[in-house]
Protein 1
Amino acid sequence: MEQEENLLEQKLKSTPKQKEKIFKLKEEKNFNSSYSNSSGKSKYTSGNVSIYKSSFHSQKATKHSLEHMERESKVTYLLEHDSSVNDNKIYEDIEKFKKEAPQIYKEKIGQKMQATSKANLIKEAVLNVKPDSTLGDIERTFKNLNEEFGGHYILASSIHRDEGVFIDTKYDLRDLEYVSSNLSWKLRDTGIDVTGEVIDFAPNRNIYFNSENSNWYFDKEFKNKADTSKFQKKINYHAHVLYSNFDKQTGKTARLDRTDLRNLQTIVADSLGMRRGQRYSKTKRMNHWQLKRAIDSKRTSNLKTKESLARLKDLKNQVNVIRQELEENKFDRNSYAVLEQLKKDLTKEIKNKELTINELRNRLDEYRVENEKRRTSIDGTILTKTVKVKEGLLKSKEVRIYDNLSVEGYVLKAKQKQNKLVSENEDLKQENKKLNDFVYELRHHFKVFELDKLKESIKSKIPKVDKKINNKNKSLNNGYER
């Protein structure tokens, strides 16, 4: 009996407690032992690890994935407008694979493939690569992933070398490292943050390509030409891979847990000869559009920091100059009122550090243009012009007169408007006459005068009826009370 109790006690001690993790890292210890060779180095390492950081991100492929990869669909954010710099390869007909996979699954497993499995049959991976990476490197990487986890059968792959941004900075790009987690730049050797000294110009966001003359511009209208010879190019070297975790030999699909996904990042980094990203990072990954918005916001902030912010002193000096112009050209009071309101608005923006000196000048120039329009025209239609009038043999003075063509045009339009109003008024009169005739017919048909007499007689009788009903109700109530 005592022996049986000891055995039971030993079993209880070895039994894990509730909520205790029975399995640890599938097991990372086992993975690392099979992952390294006798020298302690990864068996997947392709050579010396470079300064480039690896990344592997996978999601469900879309119907446009292959078009984007092979540049068959229009891409508006290219830095290099020559698709020959890219590499593309198709390994298997994707549509044929999508048809065959459910059939193979039914043959091997004995049941139909679920709709969700069909929808997630093809995945698209985006990998960071080095400038000298090849399709062979991508093939080797996926071969290593297949050996470790199964699946990862390549259907198509592309390496893109035509995307990126222009960089305006005093530093050599080779000495800088971009930190995507907080959208910052730092010196590679010292780790010093130099984000405020680096400005990026992203195609179709704050710099635009004119395909007609192959030049870059800072505006969509192609008026402000950019001298890109002063910038450095930062190419976004990356690969797109369409793959499937479905095994046509077994009919099974490889599934990866969190531990597998961490180990996957290590295999990818070593297979491509790149630095692995931070392990167990708590940084929340942003999606494509969140990242673009964050980068745009950072870019705007950096541009404003680089440009000199406007000061209240700058505003005061500029406004004084404009006031002198108004006085010399004898502008009306409305011009001064508009200027004062503009000054208040600009003062607020300057105090909030939202206005650069260039933006201040542009806003005041816009005021000058609009103010001149108000002075040289009436109702934006009749233009005026300045002419010299002689006051004697030697004297003359400048006066403003109305432009003849503008006046004639204004009068013509006024007449056309008047004729239109007269015509509309006649139409309204005709409609009013029709309504009056209709009312007359109604009165005649229903003999409205006799109806009025009937209404009066009804009104005189209604109170009497109410009185009789009220008396009857009172007598009934009295009867109940008794």
Protein 2
Amino acid sequence: MTTTSAADRAPLTYGQLSVWRVMTDWPLDRWPETYLSTVVPVPPDCPLATVTKALHTLCARHESLRTRFVERQQHVMPVADGVDVAVVERPGATPAEAEAAGRERCGQPFDRAEEFARRFTVVTDGGRPAYAVIVVDHIVADGYGLARLRAEAAALMGADDPDGRRQLDETPARPVDLARLQRSAAQRPRREAALGHWRDLLRTLPQELFPVPDEAGHHPGRIEAVLRSPGARTGLGAAARRLGVPPQTVLLALTSLATAAVTGTEQVVHTLQSSNRFTAPWRTIVSSMNQYVPLALKPGAAPFARYVRRVHGAALKAYRLGTYDIDTVTGLVLTERGIVLGFDHFFNFMAHDVPGDPQGLGGGTRRIETTRPYRQIGPRLDVKVRGGPEMPLVVRADPGLLPRTGLHALLAWYDDELHRLATDGAATTDGLLDRCRSAVCPGAER
């Protein structure tokens, strides 16, 4: 790990800058809704001192946990002698209740320039540490970074966490090094290619379709539901293997059809999240690597097998061009279209454990549950796919776009189609789209 005797200053990385700019005009009292949180069970007989030491070690290893963020700059502070940890007694708390207790301490927005944008809380049961809760501003870590913090914390507290033990043997990459690289002369061709991609999008896409104005996501009020289906997970793995594309691409293609049905448009523009972290040394970094990446798709009438391959190629190109200076792009959009850049129709796939060689189809009963989203602002349609045996597929929506009955029907459609696509080699985009319209918008003209 690296320590400094004074603040190490560098520009913001492009990912950090994107978080900063995207949230700039959101109502300040809504910022805490966007914070990320995770719960780490404390092993039995692990004392509070060991939990505190584990959290201090995280701060020493990962500079984003001891960074202050000032306009377009990150100031990495030296490793302190200790770390602030709140202790909250919650007898018999569940993990969800412990997480809620940790988030209660973040009701007021972090002052990024004056404090570290994270909170540590230890939830006790009868005085014994039961959970450690980590809450971070999105500028500190993305979902992958938070998962790393969770695994490392578990291992440091003595839990049997092989990923955490392996990660503790690695030296984490530094956000300040990434920021300097991104702005270096060596990266100029990559910066120019990304800006050229945005110019192409503005030249070829209708103004009413792209981009959406930034204010579109500022109005509070979102509903959310989740599909849990082991059978859908198995079906997705089988479909991906049969079609010769990753599981992510199959679900992205389905989501483009769902979005077309919900919005009533023939062409859609999705927002993907490109982290570009999966190359050495950046796979070890804890920071906000994500940037919003627009992906334009026009399904048309075609065999689904052909369409999904087209989606795969288009998504790969979008991801490759997904590292950019958002201030430069925002200026381009303002000049070309006269609006402040916004994003909508999000798709984020994190179920990287979908088996590539599923054994048998079906299995398990699907459950569709109404959940309450932390975030009540942001995109009007947001699809997130999580890992695990039930592959939770979460959809958050503006009820003005998709009412609750339509939301549940949409999740049932996902489940039905993933089961069908496991074996149906004759599936077509128009057939899938018609079934989605019938489910989500019954009685609508097709």
Protein 3
Amino acid sequence: MAALAAGQADEATISDRLTDFAEYAAGGIPVTVLETLYQPGRRESDEHHMRLLLQVGLQRSTELLTEFTKHRPDASASDARRWLRDVTRKMERWRIGEDRLGGVKLQRNFADHMTWLSRIQLVLTDDDPKLSAEFAEELAEVPGADALAQAVQWHRRRTALDRLRAVVDAPESTEGQIHDELKKQTWIFGGRYVEELARRRLAPGDELDIPLLRGDGALHVVELKKANVPRLIEKPRSHPSVGIEVHRAMTQAANYLRSLDENRAQILATHGIECRRAFATVLIGHPSFDAGPYTPEEISEAFRTYNATLSRIEVITYGDLIESAERTLALDAQ
């Protein structure tokens, strides 16, 4: 009644305010709306926070689309929109990355959270077991889901192997660049592994390149070296043999295993990992970079002869690793 009377008296502002208060009292609008409408400075503050949120959101969307187009340079605008919608449907898969882009100590209020959001690295993960299980349950209800899941897995592995091949074939590639492509692609090593250990330092003084945990609990250490090793093979006498760089890499892996053996009890007590049956694979060189007059078959034969003398260590080239992975993909595609 009061709002109506104010309206009839041409007091529109008072009429609107009384109507809003009545709606709030009846539960029709939240108190935050009243604060925005009538609390001095609140509208400006909300608009400022809204602009910050929109700015950060647009910035993140641009970064997402930039990453998407790196892997899908031929994608259309429709493909990008569809992918962006798919990403937003799985917000629980986002976490904070390890890179620290700023050294700001932040307070726990809304404005600072906008600064916090714009200064951290966001990482989209797809290896959360809980989320994978939920997705599997959803997918199980779709006709032909098994074939679809196998096709998706095959495509992801095909893409990962192509990326690895490109890095290995580049003469200037570093061990770090190769590691970036190999990490968490445990299927390349035969599909026997349940996970890559997050901790790379198990024994004092040693940092393992890729520590894998096999299904039976055995630890598998993968030691990475450069693919471009010109003197991969030598021929000191009548038969080709592996070069000094290969032998040095094998010795490094042997020292890792010795250190794991010596610290077995401490590692088991601290990390719950049994190192008694630990073994190692050394990845080094590629036949295409060898400067000698040796065929790929002669290089493989030299490595087989060398491996026959070793215990708990296998030394292979990136060429052999990729060829083995190609055979796996070919079998999966049948």
